[in-house]
Amino acid sequence: MTDLPRRQQRARGPAPVRHGRLPQRRLLAAVLKLLAGVVAIAVVTSVSVAAFAVWDVARSVKHGVTLVTLPGHTPVPQDIPDVGAIPGGVNLLLAGTDSRSGLGGVYNSAAEQDASTGEGNNDVTMLLHIAQDHKSMMVVSFPRDLMVPIPTCPTPDGKDTVSGSSSAQFNTALSRGGLACVVLTVEKLTGVTIPFGAVINFNGVSAMSTAVGGVTVCLASKVKDDYTNPPLDLPAGENTLVGDQALSFLRSRHGVGDGSDLGRISNQQVFLSALARKVVSGGVLGNPVQLYALAKATVQNVTPSQTLTNPTTLVEIALALKDTGLQNMVFLQYPAVADPDNINRVIPDEEASTAVNDALVNDQPVALTGTTGRAAEDPGATATPTPTSSPSETATAPASPTGTGTPAPTGSSGAVDLPSTVTGQTAAQQTCTKGNN
Predict the structure, then answer these.
(1) 30: CATH
(2) pLDDT by residue (tens digit) across 82-127?
(3) Backbone phi, then psi, for 149, in 5-degree steps?
(4) What does residue 51 show for φ and ψ, rounded to 5 degrees?
(5) What angle do CA 196, 248, 214 make, to 5 degrees?
(6) How many domains does the chain have?
């Protein structure tokens, strides 16, 4: 699907923040960066340098956002050990805001400020789920144009509430009630409880891609997009993206796939999988300078929930992924179909979304059986890699404390085979972006 100009779009619920000609979206690349980057504190070898690193990163952390839970959802206590992986599973939501407020530079122009100020819209939203046994991970991307129920939410200052809607555009949740409202909306949609969350802005994406020395992505064909800032004009082949160019690549809609937001999601997954490979096997984890720079860039450009304001928590979440394995890190799009009431909106695919929700609630690893998405292709794969855990390991995994549901059928690997309508890829798949030119 492609987007019509906003003046032609029919909204439900509160009017969304206005957008200018430049698309928004910051990557969830932050999600892995947010986690892997803070390991810097744990690997700095000098005691004095490590002490300074902890102090310097800690003083950069912004005031935390208070999250609330839906009725019937019980927050899971998180006991933080001195050093080591966080015990049990993790659900962490990352919301990318399109707000230009306070960013300065090119975003300080009248046109940029007119495009989006204040809280902004959550035009990129990802849920990171780490299994209780740390053997598998899912990153679920939610389409910005998804029509969903949005519950009653507290206002960002916590002094009042914003009435919910039975059906509203998903990306309006942030402008309604800040990060807490985005978390509540995803909890209502999926059935899981989310104790951790963060909002990242444009500057954060640029700073973090620079901190890891750039991310090399494969382009099956050239990517050209004059609607991003800066504009994109990338040739086919291998391209190393740094700073604002990486941001433009992740924001690009017109330049990738079929020009839709769903195409943009699969393009972001190409970037994320490449980032994961670099962090895990490309030397980032063994480079204290890059790791510290990544940790600092993260906390300076992210507004975390109160549960994430302690840098130690970030380190422990990062360590939970240390031995997961690239083939067990799955990036997928929350399954959706066209909205019968509006061709420029989507609604959850009932069968496929139930399978995804049940896997999340029951803490089960998943295997993808569908394609890589509208803007990605896997030129070298004959089949989608599946998690490597043995059936005995996955079949006896403890149920997630974040909710209850009916376990879906499992394949020969012990992982849940998701319907073929669920698109995505693993971090082990070296996919390429398809340009829209």
Answers:
(1) 3.40.630.190
(2) 447 889 999 999 998 865 444 444 445 454 434 444 467 888 899 9
(3) -70, 135
(4) -60, -45
(5) 75
(6) 1
